[in-house]
């Protein structure tokens, strides 16, 4: 079970990484960087930490579950692949590249120059998280 | 000046977490108490402070967009009082110095969150600080680490996240409809009637989030567990101010000065308010644990504020703001009373603790003040704020809602008299073994809050003049 959960987390991280590439292709490099660092990186670390607290189930039960799931969902990948191919064939999406956002203010400029209070808020959220981990988990380990 | 309300607790938090652990732990309580006293005094005497403190000189270094108006000052004053009481309760009830020190750190984080929520001038900043406050509360609630406390925390965590999703989605819609998320920008969009259906949809979403945060019916599932399973000091903080600022204050701010609620939305708000008043009062009857009864009573009292807000007239708004302050004070008083009982007898179960008035004279008298004020008995503070709300409802032609508000007052009196008779004034042969005495700081809190409740009630014309 644990290995499968970790595989799921890795799958999520890979999906996020692909999403980041798409965002980059859609002329949104900053969103891509956030997606890659937060969703693909940070969240995966949190999930893996959580998974490390779980327990294994017996191999026999795992095998039974695998067989059950395979029986239920064996058609799914085929349907998805065929649907994907058909959509690509009929829709003929010409190009993924969209026009860059109009001349609005730069995101970096907004965050660093105009949203000081929100940045301060983020610092407080981080501090609360750090205190939470120290108070609740450090003592639990002992 | 406004910036100081956020930066001073932050600075203290940093100082307390520098090296020299033993020295810091020794002075942490006194520094935090000094800071909270300074907040109470500076918000009460804001107009009388020397002119050089008024301009926000720190604004040169930090471009925080904050607003310090009358509503914010009342909130800062209330936050200061309740946080100081929670600090004193923690000193009296927490087992070790380490626990007390951890509590002070988390109290300071929640203080920054609450102060910034009160002073924020745009929706996103408001959301960020509501979440910062909530995060510190999750840790405070789970600090006890028993099964029920963790369960209460988990319920609050899940519902709080759902509320967060509602609010964040609403903010995205506001940005789409008004092209701005500052309070003034959203107000301007409402007045210009641009994208009004999208704005109304966003208001409805935001409202759902705020109802969860305020613990209004039908989003109240987390409140009784959260209030009753936390440590005494955390219960005081949570019931007295945190849910009020994160939910009720935001409702007051947004529906008072930012949103323009449509007729239908006002009806929904009033219905939710009335449902909270009645259903929570009925549920309170069935409780045998004092803290759970107080939690349901808290939902019922929040209902009064929401009902007044839905009414929308200036008099109703005045009543809502005043009831907010009164409720924070008398509910904190009642939770301090339950802390005293827990300290003395190790339980808050009404079937175990009976007829203990003679052993706890200060607690029994002050709890009577708190209970009568909650029920709206003259001349205590709760009477006047409820009276204002009921008069406002009558004058707005909402007779049915006014009747509900009036009659539920009788219900409130009934279940509280049942509590008072059982716990303090019943004659009993059974002698419950006393675990330890009630510390002086708990008695001090009880007397202080009872005096405020009586003084605010007696000084009604004076307070009304200030609020006007």
H/E topology pattern of chain B: HHHHHHHHHHHHHHHHHH
Sequence stretches where pLDDT stays below 50 over 5 or more residues of chain A? none
Number of domains of chain A: 2
Query: What oligomeric state do the depicted chains represent?
Result: heterodimer
Helix content of chain A: over 70%
Class derived from helix and strand content of chain A: mainly alpha
Annotation, overall tally of beta strands of chain A: 0
Which shape of chain A, going by the Cα principal axes? flat
Overall mean pLDDT of chain A stands at 78
- What is the percentage of strand-forming residues of chain B? under 5%
Q: Can you give me a brief rundown of this structure?
A:
The complex is a heterodimer of chains A (142) and B (468). Chain A has six helices and no strands. Chain A has helices spanning 2-25, 29-51, 59-73, 76-91, 107-114, 116-141.
List keywords for this structure.
heterodimer, A: 142 residues, mainly alpha, 2 domains, 6 helices, flat, B: 468 residues, 18 helices
Report on this structure:
- The complex is a heterodimer of chains A (142) and B (468).
- Chain A is mostly helical.
- Chain A folds into two domains: 1-76, no CATH class; 105-142.
- Chain A contains six helices and no strands.
- Chain B has helices spanning 2-16, 21-44, 70-93, 97-119, 123-142, 147-178, 183-192, 196-214, 222-229, 232-258, 263-285, 290-311, 314-345, 361-375, 381-395, 399-425, 440-458, 460-467.
- Chain B is an all-alpha fold and 468 residues long.
- Chain B contains 18 helices and no strands.
- The mean pLDDT of chain B is 86.
- At the A-B interface, helix 6 of A face helix 1, helix 4 and helix 5 of B.
């Amino acid at each position: 079970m644990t290995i499968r959960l970790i595989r799921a987390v890795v799958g999520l991280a890979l999906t996020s990484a692909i999403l980041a590439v798409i965002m980059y292709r859609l002329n949104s490099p900053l969103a891509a960087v956030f997606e890659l660092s937060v969703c693909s990186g940070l969240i995966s670390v949190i999930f893996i930490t959580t998974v490390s607290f779980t327990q294994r189930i017996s191999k026999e039960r795992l095998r039974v579950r695998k067989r059950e799931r395979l029986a239920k969902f064996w058609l799914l990948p085929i349907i998805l692949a065929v649907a994907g191919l058909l959509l690509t064939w009929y829709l003929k999406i010409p190009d993924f590249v969209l026009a860059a956002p109009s001349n609005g203010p730069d995101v970096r400029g907004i965050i660093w120059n105009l949203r000081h209070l929100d940045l301060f808020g983020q610092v407080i959220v981080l501090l609360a998280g750090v205190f939470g981990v120290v108070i609740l988990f450090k003592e639990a380990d002992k | 000046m406004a910036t100081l309300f956020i930066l001073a607790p932050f600075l203290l938090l940093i100082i307390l977490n520098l090296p020299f652990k033993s020295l810091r732990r020794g002075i942490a309580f006194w520094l935090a108490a000094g800071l909270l006293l300074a907040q109470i005094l500076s918000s009460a005497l804001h107009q009388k402070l020397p002119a050089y403190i008024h301009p926000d000189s720190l604004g040169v270094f930090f471009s925080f967009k904050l607003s310090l108006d009358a509503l914010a000052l009342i909130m800062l004053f209330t936050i200061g009082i309740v946080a100081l009481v929670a600090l004193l309760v923690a000193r009296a009830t927490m087992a070790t110095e380490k626990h007390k020190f951890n509590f002070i750190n988390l109290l300071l984080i929640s203080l920054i969150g609450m102060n910034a929520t009160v002073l924020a001038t745009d929706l996103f900043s408001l959301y960020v600080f509501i979440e910062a406050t909530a995060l510190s509360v999750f840790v405070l609630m789970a600090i006890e680490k028993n099964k029920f406390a963790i369960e209460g925390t988990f319920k609050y965590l899940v519902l709080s996240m759902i509320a967060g999703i509602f609010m964040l989605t609403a903010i995205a819609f506001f940005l789409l409809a008004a092209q701005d998320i500052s309070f003034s920008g959203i107000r301007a969009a409402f007045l210009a009637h641009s994208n009004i259906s999208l704005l109304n949809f966003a208001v409805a979403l935001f409202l759902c989030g705020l109802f969860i945060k305020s613990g209004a019916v039908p989003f109240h599932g987390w409140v009784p567990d959260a209030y009753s399973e936390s440590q005494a000091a955390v219960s005081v903080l949570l019931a007295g101010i945190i849910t009020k600022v994160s939910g009720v204050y935001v409702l007051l701010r947004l529906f008072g000065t930012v949103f323009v609620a449509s007729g239908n939305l006002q009806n929904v708000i009033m219905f939710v308010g009335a449902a909270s008043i009645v259903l929570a009062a009925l549920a309170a009857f069935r409780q045998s644990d004092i803290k759970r009864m107080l939690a349901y009573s808290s939902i019922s009292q929040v209902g009064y504020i929401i009902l007044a807000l839905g009414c929308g007239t200036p008099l109703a708004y005045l009543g809502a703001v005043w009831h907010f302050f009164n409720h924070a004070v008398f509910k904190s008083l009642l939770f301090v009373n339950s802390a005293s009982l827990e300290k003395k007898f190790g339980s808050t179960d009404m079937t175990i603790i009976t007829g203990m008035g003679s052993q706890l004279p200060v607690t029994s008298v002050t709890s009577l003040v708190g209970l009568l004020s909650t029920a709206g008995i003259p001349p205590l503070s709760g009477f006047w704020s409820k009276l204002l709300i009921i008069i406002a409802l009558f004058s707005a032609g909402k007779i049915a809602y006014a009747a509900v508000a009036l009659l539920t007052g009788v219900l409130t009196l009934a279940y509280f008299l049942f509590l008072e008779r059982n716990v303090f004034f019943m004659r009993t042969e059974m002698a419950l073994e006393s675990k330890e005495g009630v510390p002086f700081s708990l008695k001090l809190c009880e007397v202080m809050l009872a005096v405020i409740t009586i003084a605010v009630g007696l000084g009604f014309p004076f307070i009304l003049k200030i609020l006007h």
